[in-house]
Amino acid sequence: MTGHERFSSDGNPQGELPIGRRVARWRVRRRMSQQVFADRLGKSKSWVDKVERGVRALDRMSVIHEVAGVLRIDSAVLLGGDTPARSAAVPLVADVDDARAALTRYAVFAPDGVDRPAPPVAEVGRQVRHAWLTYQHAGYPQVLRLLPRLLDVTRRLPADDPARRSALRVQAYRIAASSLVKLGDVEGAWLAANRAVAMAGDDPVLAATAVVSLGEVLRAAGRGRLAVATTLAAAHRIAPAVPGQGPPEALAVGGSLLLQAALAAAGRSDPRGVAELVGQATEIAVRLGDGDDHHQLAFGPTVVALARVAAAVELGEPAEAVRGHEQVTREPHWQRLPPEHRAAYLLDMARAYLDLGDLAGAGRMLVEADRTAPTEVRCRPVGRTLLARIARDGPAVAGVTRLAMLIGLTP
């Protein structure tokens, strides 16, 4: 299944038959009437008819296994394939290890690369832009495969343009940090984020962009207090003398740092701190507006609204999160945000619905996240954990059951 595949309202890729229609086709192939099929299942003929017409949802894995057994087929066939398409969901252990190995290489210890020509700066810039775009579309397997070479070429950049060299190096390490933290390698992500800060040199705004990534890593590591202190220190360092009057690029970075601090404060159960920090970020966002992607941060009013919802989830206020969600997803800029950002946010919303005891709502959020960026659900530990829990505790929307089968997380 590709990241470009679109889904119908029941969670199935467009062009595929709904599960009820597949049941009907296989029943006919096995030359069973609805009554005979119902008798073998221990169900009523009316139940079978409603399932086949799509009036009744077939969304419990135990029932799907039972139906498949009577039809003498694999459950995966009913869910949309001849065999479970699990390859897209295999944890990327080897690729993560390769990326970590690339992070621990130092040019001074690599004499075999001394005589290699320095790569053209323009070509390296193109590679970095490609890696960012791939990350923003949640192409984590592809990014991990790109990282070893990307880190190598940025290390070998010529010294005749130090500012450009620092900028490209910082971006490469930020991509590494963001990708690794997504996939649960907090130690590797911490190393990458620290390298990004170190590579920024004396450029405070460039260093602050790296601290945005560092703040995310510190939060993932459970170091909320340190995340707040680090991100606020960077935000204060680049704050303009007149509030809101600095260059847009610097304002966007400062606002992003405030949001990282707010999310860290939420993780520490500090609602007052969250309100203050989100309020400050809102003032900056209103001045900047939506639409620009300064330093690949997408900072603006919509991103601030998403962070406010995510903070409510962390603070244990799921009802408030749902109210905010219903409002922010109606904003025009919501659909223009990178797929990675939207899908990660939808996983937060799945948690909110779970906290409310609404498994169907959580399932809808998960299916929507998978439609937006499949690897957020299928490759990220948090996505797989949510999927396993929702599929186990169902009933849920049919798409959740299908996803659980596709990636081998059947109860």
UniProtKB/TrEMBL annotation:
It comes from the Bacteria. Residues 23-78 form the HTH cro/C1-type domain. GO terms for molecular function: DNA binding. This is Helix-turn-helix domain-containing protein.
